[in-house]
Automatic annotation (TrEMBL):
SUPFAM superfamilies associated with the record: FAD/NAD(P)-binding domain (SSF51905), Succinate dehydrogenase/fumarate reductase flavoprotein, catalytic domain (SSF56425)
Cofactor list: FAD
InterPro entries: CobZ, FAD-dep_OxRdtase_2_FAD-bd, FAD-oxidoreductase_2, FAD/NAD-bd_sf, Succ_DH/fumarate_Rdtase_cat_sf
FAD-dependent oxidoreductase 2 FAD-binding domain residues: 5-432
UniProt signal peptide: none
UniProt keyword terms in alphabetical order: FAD, Flavoprotein, Oxidoreductase
Protein's UniProt name: Fumarate reductase flavoprotein subunit
NCBIfam families assigned: CobZ_N-term, PRK08274.1
Length: 460
């Protein structure tokens, strides 16, 4: 196994983009994927779309989405916590990535309608992320890339300014290889609940991990322990509000609930705590994981009525349903009188709803109530009533490896000459907080391609 030029650690979108580019450049590439083959692909299995800049209609994308608008969207969700140079690089390069993706087997479909409102900004994969991952593995194999599954990388030996060797276990045996270059694309540490708890405190015990259970941060921890430069805050992550009935791990994108803009959301005391209509859902869904995490027992409850039932993507689990608010409260183990009072106060604060428009900011707002609901504020009044429990669902963490514009890693500011990183494991370089729908795939594709080319140039 020592005749490889490049070892790519990880098996998702960023790893595959790096491997394909490096192989096209003539390098002999080995992918070391921790997961078994049926679960290969990391969080990329669960993705649906790719956020893409474009100067005019491009593939399934309509109209235009220029660099400045894209950057403004990113700055809004990150609160300015981003490396603008790297962000602009990812945004600018995304336009050339879409035809490149098509050339490597990815097929796109017309955008979904409804809550997502993404037809202009995001290109959706035909068959979702699983199809993208499978297409890339087929292409990589045709290019001569070797993929090893259930290969658990345990250590990268840093000596001075280079990685000397890579240790991994496979089928119960220990192995050591000495590739010329190494690309780390093995994600964050979100599946290590002990690490999450050290960062967040006891609240993390109640989080669900909607991403892969194989991203435990083993390689990340190994490199950070050896002094590789880090970026990001261990408490920052892509965390969304997901169905409270989702599994502990790997529930994926289908566990997300898109009903929030058309609901009121309350905590276990049946009290509202945030503006449900602050912005269109793709720009706000990722803040709700943290909002729910701050509530008692890290749980929330979304309440809608019959007229909102068809306005959002169907949920994987059906909502709880009752003909009265009190009946719904009992099903959800909420205080019935308090839920009734909260809904009545909200309904009284709703005004003229004639301008209601479910797919864009409509300014249909409440008045005289805190927190306000600034869009899509219609009374919760038409039975039957429906409810969903919400829990914090972590997709990936933002503490990661600091990289430059060539995706290269460093230690104490000095470049590691043969180490690059791509994807979620370096996304904290750009995502200081918050999230923008489809942007993780943008980061992985752009920096995966860069890392693959740089590693191949070095190895050759």
């Amino acid at each position: 196994m020592n005749d490889f030029d490049i070892a790519v650690i990880g098996g998702g979108n960023a790893a595959l983009c790096a491997a394909m580019v490096a192989a096209r450049a003539g390098a002999r590439v080995l992918i070391l994927e921790t997961a078994p083959q049926p679960y290969r692909g990391g969080n990329s299995r669960h993705t649906r779309n790719f956020r893409c800049m474009h100067a005019g209609p491009l593939g399934p994308l309509t109209d235009t989405y220029d660099e400045e608008e894209y950057l403004a969207d990113l700055l809004k969700v990150t609160g300015g916590k981003t490396d603008e140079n790297l962000a602009r690089l990812a945004i600018r390069t995304s336009e050339e990535c879409l035809p490149w993706m098509e050339g490597h087997g990815v097929r796109f479909q017309p955008s979904l309608s409804g809550t997502l409102s993404l037809g202009r900004t995001n290109a959706f994969f035909m068959g979702g992320g699983k199809s993208l991952v499978n297409a890339y593995y087929r292409t990589a194999q045709a290019l001569g890339v070797t993929a090893l599954y259930e290969a658990h990388v345990t250590h990268l030996e840093l000596n001075g300014n280079r990685i000397e060797w890579v240790d991994y276990t496979h089928l119960g045996q220990s192995h050591r290889i000495t590739p010329k270059a190494v690309i780390v694309a093995s994600g964050g540490f979100q599946a290590d609940t002990e690490w999450l708890t050290r960062a967040w405190g006891p609240a993390a015990q109640n989080f669900l991990i909607r991403g892969t259970p194989y991203n435990r941060g083993v390689v990340l921890a190994d490199l950070l322990d050896q002094g590789i430069d880090s970026v990001g805050d261990p408490t920052q992550c892509h965390a969304v509000a997901i169905d409270g009935r989702a599994p502990k791990f790997d529930g994926g994108i289908v566990t997300r609930l898109d009903c929030v803009p058309f609901s009121i959301v309350v905590n276990k005391n049946a009290e509202r705590f945030y503006d449900e209509g602050e912005d269109v859902w793709p720009k706000r869904y990722a803040i709700w994981g943290r909002l729910v995490a701050a509530q008692p027992d890290q749980v929330g409850y979304a309440i809608i009525d019959a007229k909102a039932r068809e306005l959002f993507m169907p949920s994987v689990f059906p909502p709880l349903q009752a003909d009265t608010l009190e009946g719904l409260a009992e099903l959800m183990e909420l205080p019935p009188a308090q839920l009734r009072a909260t809904v009545e106060a909200f309904n009284a604060a709703c005004g003229d709803t004639s301008g209601f428009h479910p797919t864009e900011l409509d300014g249909v707002a409440t008045s005289g109530i805190e927190p306000a609901k600034t869009n899509w504020a219609r009374p919760i009044s038409d039975p039957p009533f429906f409810g969903y429990s919400l829990r914090t669902g972590v997709t990936f963490t933002y503490l990661g490896l600091k990289v430059d514009a060539r995706a290269q890693c460093s230690a104490q500011g000095n470049k590691i000459e043969n180490l690059w990183a791509a994807g979620e494991t370096m996304a904290g370089s750009i995502l200081g907080q918050g999230y923008l729908a489809g942007f993780g795939m943008t980061i992985g594709t752009v920096f995966g391609r860069i890392a693959g080319q740089e590693a191949a140039d070095y190895a050759n």
